[in-house]
Write a structure and sequence with these properties.
Order of helices and strands of chain A: EEEHEEHEHHHEHEHEEHHEEH
Distance between the termini of chain B: 37 Å
Shape of chain B: globular
Structural class of chain A: alpha/beta
Strand order of the largest sheet of chain A: 6-7-8-3-9-10
Radius of gyration of chain A: 20 Å
Number of strands of chain B: 0
Order of helices and strands of chain B: HHHHHHHHHHHHHHH
Oligomer: heterodimer
Number of helices of chain A: 10
Number of helices of chain B: 15
Number of strands of chain A: 12
Largest sheet of chain A: 6 strands, mixed
Largest interface: A-B, 37 and 32 residues
Chain lengths: ~260, ~325
């Protein structure tokens, strides 16, 4: 997947100001950057959900903007950030939603689809959950169901918007480990918006740092998560240390000045 | 297994309630005579059964099934367990269309069409109004529905009092508006049945794509749903089902809301199964409600909307209280 010179925004506000991103099969690209940098907007453009004012997104040379929704969904899967539903779908029914773009003319699913659903459940280790109700499983299990739904799309590109947002640290790690493995084994190009720089450092094959709607740096973990760039983009109060050959970002305790300001 | 049981029970319930609806009425007719009347006996009983009770039971079943299917569609697309044709103002729009058609002297067969047009305008307006803030919430849909229902109601009253044609039959028209399956003949029934059949086929074809709305519109789009086309198709199908129902039976609340909601607990959330089950369940509910309306204060007759309102409104309130967490 190649995105070139993307400019996009909402009404008068331009959020992305000429962004280039690429993601190759088998790689997990982490999109990092402060709030408001344009990460989620970029993900929406890559998924064909927001039309950019200029620039292009291509997958295997195919222009995403020229495709209809159904065709886009066969090439790009998006894992939603919100996965709450009021309705008592089973996990298997949720995963089957991933086959929406392959529904027959009468809206039916065939045996290929059933196989894809079973495989997605298996890949994500959620086969045991298949018949449980989505509103009765834990947050981590629901997130796995949604991930399996996206896998069932059998798209070459997988986009994730803060996939670890509502999970505890163990589930955060498990989720990204699973995604990184699937990317490698199945040859999927994964682009994930990550807030946690340490998770990005642990699992990303490449990191794209966004600020103010532009790419600040695009490269390997050690080249992007540096003391200099973190201080420049995120501001003061974050220390970057090297450990086990990769960078760790550690929040500093409040300084005497900050404590004083808050007390006053 | 549970699905099979529920469907079997629904079929049995439909048969029993239809039998009760035909057997019971203002004139006592022995079951044996009812049977011979159904088989074509040429006497007063035959006329009562074939021209009054049978079309009335079929009409109630048609209306109940159509409203429940429309409710299932709307709830799924709006991700709102409190939506139905009545609370969204769709029924009110349909009633305005129907009243206008009668006031202007249209052919009776055109009344369902006028009701469909009224329902379409109403639901399109509600959809627009509810999206003013950028996203639809349960509450904005209900508010838009309230506004539209009052407005259409005021216009209906205005047409009623200013039309000479309607003034002569004010009592009959008011009875119909309150949800009365009073006057129905085989022709009207046939027209409505065709319209409902088209609506049901549309609803079943749309159902799998409505499932994809489970996590919201953006996710539905990401899954490959063409939002604009699907939304338009769902709204049009809802208007079709509602228009046919209102043309026969006026404003009947809560059947479209309660039936799909209750069935979802029994059968799960996928919309094709839900709609298929909602049709007989809605039919049973309205046939029984109509039976109640005919017998509760016999020989006087209540509009069936009174019964569904008395039963449905408390249910709606209970739902509202239970789902306060999600309404905003």
């Amino acid at each position: 997947m190649v995105a070139r010179q993307i400019r996009a925004g909402y009404r008068e506000r331009e959020v992305l100001r000429g962004v280039d991103v690429t993601a190759h099969a088998g790689e997990l690209v982490a999109l990092i950057g402060p709030n408001g940098a344009g990460k989620s907007t970029l993900l929406r453009v890559l998924g064909g959900l927001l039309r950019p004012s200029s620039g292009s997104v291509t997958i295997d040379g195919l222009d995403v903007m020229s495709l209809d929704r159904r065709s886009i969904a066969r090439h790009v899967a998006v894992v939603p950030q919100v996965f709450e539903t009021l309705f008592p779908f089973t996990v298997r029914e949720i995963v089957a939603l991933g086959r929406t773009s392959r529904l027959g003319p009468l809206g039916t699913l065939g045996s290929d689809d059933a196989r894809a659903v079973a495989r997605a459940l298996d890949d994500i280790g959620a086969t045991d959950l298949a018949e449980r109700r989505i509103d009765r499983v834990s947050g981590g299990e629901r997130q796995r169901a949604v991930l399996a739904m996206a896998l069932a799309q059998e798209a070459g590109v997988l986009l994730l918007d803060e996939p670890t947002a509502h999970l505890d640290p163990a589930h955060q790690r498990a989720t990204l480990a699973r995604v990184a493995t699937l990317a490698r084994v199945r040859g999927i190009a994964v682009v994930a918006v990550l807030h946690d720089l340490n998770l990005a450092a642990a699992f990303a094959s490449r990191v794209v740092l966004l600020a103010d709607g532009a790419v600040v740096r695009d490269g390997d973990v050690k080249g992007v998560i540096t003391a200099e760039l973190v201080a420049k983009v995120f501001g003061a109060g974050l220390r970057v240390v090297a450990h086990d050959g990769r960078p760790f970002v550690i929040p500093e305790p409040a300084t005497a000045l900050e404590r004083h300001a808050r007390a006053g | 297994m549970r699905t099979v049981t529920v469907f079997a029970l629904l079929v049995v319930a439909l048969a029993l309630s239809a039998a009760a609806g035909i057997l019971v009425g203002a004139v006592a007719i022995a079951p044996g005579d009812v049977l011979s009347a159904l088989l074509g006996a040429d006497n007063t009983n035959g006329t009562i059964i074939r021209e009054l009770r049978l079309p009335r039971v079929l009409g109630a079943a048609l209306v109940g099934g159509a409203l429940a299917a429309a409710g299932a569609l709307l709830q799924g697309m709006l991700r709102n367990p409190l939506a139905d044709p009545f609370v969204t103002g769709t029924s009110a729009g349909a009633s305005l269309g129907a009243v206008l058609a009668v006031a202007l002297g249209f052919e009776p067969a055109l009344v369902p069409l006028a009701a469909f047009v009224g329902a379409t305008v109403a639901i399109a307006l509600v959809w627009r109004l509810a999206r003013l803030g950028g996203r639809t919430t349960v509450l904005t849909v209900l508010l838009a529905g309230v506004v539209l229902t009052s407005f259409a109601g005021a216009l209906v009253t205005l047409v009623l009092v200013s039309s000479d044609r309607l003034a002569l039959r004010l009592r009959a028209v008011l009875g119909w508006l309150q949800g009365g399956i009073s006057v129905i003949n085989w022709n009207e029934l046939a027209v409505a049945a065709v319209v409902v059949a088209v609506g049901v086929v549309g609803a079943l074809l749309l159902a799998p794509r409505i499932d994809a709305y489970a996590f919201g519109e953006e996710t539905a789009a990401a899954l490959g749903v063409d939002l604009d086309r699907t939304t338009a198709a769902v709204l049009a199908t809802t208007a079709l089902l509602t228009g046919a129902a209102v043309a026969i039976a006026g404003l009947i609340g809560f059947v479209g809301l309660v039936i799909p909601h209750a069935l979802r607990f029994l059968l799960g959330a996928t919309h094709r199964r839900l709609i298929v089950a909602s049709i007989p369940a809605g039919a049973v509910a309205l046939v029984l409600a109509d039976l109640g309306a005919r017998t509760a204060l016999a020989p006087a007759e209540l509009p069936v909307g009174v019964i569904t309102g008395l039963v449905g409104a408390p249910f709606f309130l209970a739902l509202l209280v239970r789902s306060r967490r999600v309404i905003a």
